[in-house]
Amino acid sequence: MTMVILDTIDAPRRLWRRLGAWLHKRMPKGLYARALLILILPIVLLQSAVAYVYMQRHWEAITDRLSAAVARDTAAIVELYRSFPQDADHQILTRVAGVDLAIKLTIKPKAPLPPSTPRTFFSLLDRVLPRELERRLKYPFSIDTSNSHFVTIDVLLDDAVLEVVTTRTQAYASNSHIFFIWTTLASVVILAIAMTFLRNQVRPIQRLARAAEEFGKGRDAPFRPSGAREVRQAGAAFLEMKRRVERAIEQRTTMLNGVSHDLRTILTRFKLSLSLLDKTVETGELRKDVEEMENMLESYLAFARGDGGEAPAKTDVGAFLRDLQADTQKMGIEARLLVRGVPEVIVRPAALRRLLANLVGNAQRYGKRIDLTALNDGEMLTIHVDDDGPGIPVDRLEDAFRPFYRLDESRNQDNGNSGLGLAIARDIARSHGGEVALTRSPLGGLRATVTLPV
């Protein structure tokens, strides 16, 4: 019993949730469209409801008066028929009905009345006209309102049946077309005004979003706060954040340049001292250690420096890939290149070259065949670097991007054992609004996929 009660209580909630989910899927996703919907829908509904109630009451009163007039005219015709029996051919009655009352009158022999048409719930005429006829006629009658232009009233008298035919507009005032015209025109006017004002309010938000997106891609887009007070505050906060980030990057670059200069000076002294020593096994090992230290230092500084403040420019990625293909072939490794579309993007050229060099160098180290692919679909430039090497286990693909992380000996992804090759590549891609992902290659090894917005 308790379960039945709980199910009965939860049923409306589930129905409401399903209705909410259905509406959520079909609601517009943009701020402009949603704001229009929030503003227009309640106003139009309220305006329609008010207009309908007002006009319905107004036309109900008019219909009452018109139907009452038709009932009075019908009652007058009946009284004239009963009061002038000497008018055997009914010329006077017919003339009065046709000329003065605009009613077509037909006098038929006495017979049972035809059935009245069924009354419909939404027909105002079917409710009002019978009521008014009952108030003014003392004889049985029937009404036919099935014709869209005329109303027929049959009145059963003692010796005849009077058929009264009048136009529908004499008894009923239709308001549906006026209501729809009024609602449509009012809705169009409200929509035009709302669209004009909302567009001006949404446009500064769109400019702010574009400026933030361009800044995230490393591009400098001119932006000046405008619009409503809250939007201007958000724009000013964005500009302040942008200045702080640029200042932090500038300070970091200055510090790294100083560190790089000092460490390179020490390494140069080491190399100079080793060159003055006799070539022995020990000095050879020291030279290798110094070279490895120099390579690791360059990797660390490149990772910490990031893009180094390089300015974005339109870059032909296909030229980079052709150079990497030629370098790979010089190493005796089979390399193929496929380019579809125009492989041009606005990026930092040196940073992108380093990104591709890291990925191709990783493939060169462990593969005997490399496939390079560049696809431009108009929105994104996708670059695939495939090799036939041993690959990386699926559960460790993301670990390969961790700085200083070492995979097993079968596949170590860095040049100088620094563990930064793929980390630098992903950092460069993300600074351009793109991404680097690793998957299984069709060649059996590793596939590195770079996506960059065009």
UniProtKB/TrEMBL annotation:
By its UniProt entry, which InterPro entries does this protein fall under?
Answer: 2C_sensor_his_kinase (IPR050980), HAMP_dom (IPR003660), HATPase_C_sf (IPR036890), HATPase_dom (IPR003594), His_kinase_dom (IPR005467), HisK_dim/P_dom (IPR003661), HisK_dim/P_sf (IPR036097), Sig_transdc_His_kin-like_C (IPR004358)
Broad class of enzyme this protein falls into: transferase
| Key words, A-Z | ATP-binding, Cell inner membrane, Cell membrane, Kinase, Membrane, Nucleotide-binding, Phosphoprotein, Transferase, Transmembrane, Transmembrane helix, Two-component regulatory system
Residues forming the HAMP domain are 199-250
Which residue intervals define the domain Histidine kinase in the entry? 258-454
From the Swiss-Prot or TrEMBL record, state where the protein is found: Cell inner membrane
Q: Which SMART domains match?
A: HAMP, HATPase_c, HisKA
Q: Which reaction does it catalyse?
A: ATP + protein L-histidine = ADP + protein N-phospho-L-histidine
A GO cellular component term found in this entry reads: plasma membrane
* Protein's UniProt name: histidine kinase
EC number(s) stated in the UniProt entry for this protein: 2.7.13.3
Primary location = membrane
Enumerate the GO terms in the molecular function aspect: ATP binding; phosphorelay sensor kinase activity
Do you know which Gene3D superfamilies this protein is assigned to? 1.10.287.130, Histidine kinase-like ATPase, C-terminal domain
